[in-house]
Structures are given as C-alpha cells and as structure tokens.
Design brief:
By secondary structure, this protein is an all-beta fold. The chain has one domain (1-66). Helix content is 0%, strand content 34%. It has strands at 23-28, 37-48, 55-63. A three-stranded antiparallel β-sheet has the order 1-2-3, with no helix packed on it. The protein is globular.
Length: 80
C-alpha cells in the first residue's frame, strides 16, 4: 500500500503463532560503497468481519519515517 516497493510481492515469514511480523524491513542496495537503504513497512488490518469485527487478513503499509520496530517488549523493561 504505497511506498517504493508498491506492487511487488515478497515472501513474509510467519512466527510460531502463525502471525506475520508487525514491522517488515526491506534493505535496498545502493551504489557501491554505500550502506543499503532500509524501507520499513507496518502491518495493518486488510479487512474485518461484519459481525464480530475480527481481522480477516493483513496488509503492509509503507512507513515513510522508517523507524524500525523495537522488538520484544517485556513488562519489566524500561521504556526507550
């Protein structure tokens, strides 16, 4: 849904629960000698059921700010 990779299909690995990751980072190589540019996509609900409002699928939306996700968040962790 928008972004530099609009229209391309990439395989996304799912976790142990069968859910796709909340953020997906795609490195795109630059010219020789430069570090790759990382594009960040965030998971959003693609559709919801009419009766219960449950999520029926996921899509990825481009995040132009490109701040990568934080990873696991534990109750005893300090906020960043």
């Amino acid at each position: 849904m928008g972004g530099p990779l609009d229209g391309r299909v990439l395989p996304v690995l799912v976790g142990l629960t069968g859910q796709p990751p909340k953020t997906y980072e795609v490195p795109v190589e630059n010219e020789a000698g430069e570090p790759p540019t990382v594009h960040v996509y965030r998971r959003v609900p693609a559709a919801t059921s009419k009766r219960l409002g449950l999520v029926r699928g996921w899509a990825y939306e481009y995040d132009p700010e490109g701040k990568p996700g934080g990873g696991l968040k534990w109750p005893w962790s300090k906020p960043s």
